[in-house]
Amino acid sequence: MGRSRRGRKIDGWLVIDKPAGLTSTDVVNRLKRASQAQKVGHGGTLDPLATGVLPIAFGAATKTVPYVMDGAKEYRFTLRFGEARDTDDADGAVTATSDVRPTDEAIRAALPAFIGDILQVPPRFSAIKVAGERAYDLARAGEAVELAPRPARVDAFTLEARPDPDTAVFRVVSGKGVYMRSLARDLAEALGTVGHVAALRRLRVGPFAEAMAVSLDSAVAMGQEDAASSPLLPVETALADIPALALTGGEASRLSSGQALSLVAFLGRVPPEADPDGGIVRVMAGGKALAIGRLEGGMLHPVRILAATA
Fold it and tell me: What distance lies between CA 35 and its chain's CA centroid?
């Protein structure tokens, strides 16, 4: 017999308003200690300087993390003109300066070039691996780090405020893997100057919004008292944007055992927005999310089982 997992069985999502100065892993570790949960993870890394929405997955919710990370994200950041930093944010050392301060009109004229499908060079201080090593480890060791441009998707990039000539506040809606530090750096360069992110806040990750977030301190306090009293969201909250397909008890049992099911049995039940050629669906049984499934070749294939059938 295998060993039983130590800790409390807690399933669901908790949206934390991450404070500045902590890594996403720091937040996970504090919540795991406080709740004594068996398994805890997070849905999208935030830099230590950043604040805002950090979805925390407990138990079965960790199986849905990839779907959260694939969702749209929304940020607000402050770009400080005149100083380039080695980290591309305020935590780094100054590497270059400039006296150029762009006008609002010049900024707005430059933004369209950064909207849509673009190529972006990630910051040298990032978790991307180079020859098996994290880029930030190489950068901290003083080694030259050359990162190749990567495809990125930016759906919206707008100038929100101009507090003074040195700073500008932007709102961005983007896809997976877009670095706000790179957007700030590259925009400043396009405007004939240099710059870095002075402040960064994430407002949304997929279905998880700022209004759902609780402070880390309050979540830790609740976890120490009773994890059941914390504002946990259901596991399937992470899958809200994925079309739902309901199964009967027998169908759910077969799918849970790894069987692919013929779509002929689901005529009239397959949601019209689901793509029958490789589309992902949220498989429901008894009102709860049972699995992630893929529609392909006239069959429903199990991709990830989220819960056991009764």
Answer: 23
What's the Rg (C-alpha) of the chain?
Answer: 22
Cα separation, 258 vs 303, whole angstroms: 9
Tokens of 170: 């932007």
47 flagged as catalytic: yes
List Cα–Cα distances, 113 to 104, 159, 187, 196, 285, in angstroms.
16, 14, 9, 18, 46
- Say what the pTM is: 0.85
Q: How far is CA 185 from CA 83, 117, 133, 188, in A?
A: 10, 18, 24, 5
Q: Which regions of the chain are under pLDDT 70?
A: 1-5, 131, 135, 137-139, 141, 223-230, 308-310
Residues of the chain above pLDDT 90, percent: 61
Q: Tens digits of per-residue pLDDT, 90-141?
A: 999 999 999 999 999 999 999 999 999 999 998 877 777 776 777 676 667 6
The CA-atom distances, in angstroms, between 50 and each of 6, 42, 276 are 32, 15, 39
Report which residue type is found at 126. Answer: S
CA distance 37 to 40: 7
Q: Which two tokens stand for residue 289?
A: 């999310």
Say how far apart CA 141 and CA 232 lie, in whole Å.
41
Q: Do the beta carbons of residue 78 and residue 169 sit within 8 Å? A: yes
**Distance of alpha carbon 151 from alpha carbon 136, whole angstroms:** 20
User: Among candidates 297, 298, 307, 292, which has minimal Cα distance to 253?
Assistant: 307
| Helix axes 216-225 and 24-35, enclosed angle (nearest 10) | 20
- Where is 295: in which H helix or E strand? strand 288-296
pLDDT in tens, 174-209: 998 899 999 999 999 999 999 999 999 999 999 999
Catalytic residue, candidates 47, 88, 89, 186: 47
DSSP type of residue 18: E
Asked if residue 58 lies in contact with residue 11, where contact means CB atoms within 8 angstroms, the answer is yes
How far apart CA 195 and CA 187 sit, in angstroms, is 8
Place of tokens 């997070």: 42
